[in-house]
Amino acid sequence: MPTSAYRPERDRQGIALCLSGGGFRAALFHLGALRRLNEVGLLSKVNTFSSVSGGSIANGLLAKAWSALTKDAGGVFTNCEEVYAKPLRAFCAMDLRTGVLLGTRVNPLNWAKLAGDDHSSTDFLADAYEERLVGDLKLAHLTALRAAGGPDFVFCASNLQTGVNFEFSADGVGDWKIGQAEAPEVRVAEAIAASSAFPIAFAPLVLRFDPDRFTRREGLLVDAGLKRQLRRRVILSDGGVYDNLGLEPVWKDHRVVLCSDGGKPFQVSSNPGVSEIPRLLRAQDVIGNQALALRKRWLVSSFETGVYEGAYWGIGTEIAGYPTHGPGYGGVVLERLRAVRTDLDAFSEAEQLVLMNHGWALADAAISSYLRADLLPLPIPPGTPPSGTLLADADAAARALEHSHETEIFGRG
């Protein structure tokens, strides 16, 4: 049985940033938060970026851009807007969803591939990520990046066979039940696709490995035959199925844990459904909500008891709840932010800026309120929100999000 990776407070090291799931909405919310972290010189100090689903979109592009980022004496990346923010915004302005979900399935050329049990629409999603977002980046690149003094980039999926968090990183692939294998040839695009294969919309991603390559962290399973079978053919779904906050890779050993949560808050409803299917779906939402709520409570409790330092900010958070905060969104704007769609469809410029503003303002409030002074420059630089106009004009921000909760069947792009 593998030894525990848990470390007591005195042995913890490094800063981790967790980027939650939530489609393009989460990616844009995180982008605003990353902007604020960069303005105070904290982004360049992060040792591990852990991500899920929409957060993995932002994380994957950051891994690609990292070597091209240049920082000043204060640790601020001076070219982050050009090298990272603009490409990510351009990506989130495309309709990635409709072509993958509908276009690939109606094309007869794809029918033979989709008919096999090792292929699904998520393979085409991986191809789209490679073509439009991260290129031919592989896990070998993440290994080289870390060897050169860069951070770890970890992408989380859910292993539907073992029921636990499955990781792609510089260390390879695997989970704590089947063990870990070096896999330098695996595409980062595949890691992002597995991480963002939201159930119902996207089928699981199936990956095949040589069982004999799993030589690290041998895994929990005793049955050698079953272990080889599970290592040979891995079936992966959205990382949010197991942990939508991306905490699993970092909570045991990091000294500082920052969590940016762009996931959809649970919606109170007077009508949980009359027929069987709506009732079952609502029950599933309640189950998922209680699991996520427990993770959040555990995270905050760990901050309060000193297990590790850090801060949490979520898309549904009231900025007034932080002891120290600047301007932010509330009222109608916050209600609409909570309801913004979480798919991979195109977001308009105004929608993007409101989401980025929200992430920027909440990250600022969280780190200003809860991080130790030695992690931040004093006085804390004021920074510049993505759109000062939309941050100051609540009516304009509300108008920008008026239809943001609506899902278009054939896409907006």
Rg, alpha carbons: 21 Å
Report the total helices.
15
Shape type: globular
Number of strands: 10
Look at the structure and give the mean pLDDT.
90
Helix content: 40-55%
Summing up helix and strand content along with how strands pair, one would put the structural category as: alpha/beta
List the uncertain runs: none
Strand percentage lies at 5-15%
The largest sheet, given as strand count, sense and whether it forms a barrel, is: 10 strands, mixed
Q: What string gives the helices and strands in order?
A: EHEHHHHHHEEEEHEHEHEHEHHHH
**N-to-C terminal Cα separation, in Å?**
50 Å
Task: Present the secondary structure layout.
Elements lengths: L14 E5 L3 H17 L8 E5 L1 H12 L14 H13 L4 H10 L4 H5 L5 H14 L4 H9 L4 E8 L4 E6 L2 E4 L3 E3 L6 H8 L9 E4 L15 H9 E6 L1 H4 L12 E6 L14 H30 L3 E6 L16 H9 L9 H22 L17 H5 L1 H7 L13
Parallel strand pairs: 1-2, 1-9, 2-3, 9-10
Antiparallel strand pairs: 3-4, 3-8, 4-5, 5-6, 7-8
Task: List the keywords.
15 helices, 13% strand, alpha/beta, 10-stranded mixed sheet, globular, 413 residues, single chain
What does this structure look like?
The chain is α/β, with parallel strands linked by helices and 413 residues long. The chain has 15 helices and ten strands. Strands 1, 2, 3, 4, 5, 6, 7, 8, 9 and 10 form a ten-stranded mixed sheet that branches. Helix 11 links the parallel strand 9 and strand 10. Helix 1 crosses helix 13, helix 4 crosses helix 6 and helix 6 packs across helix 8. The termini are far apart. The model has no long low-confidence stretch (mean pLDDT 90).
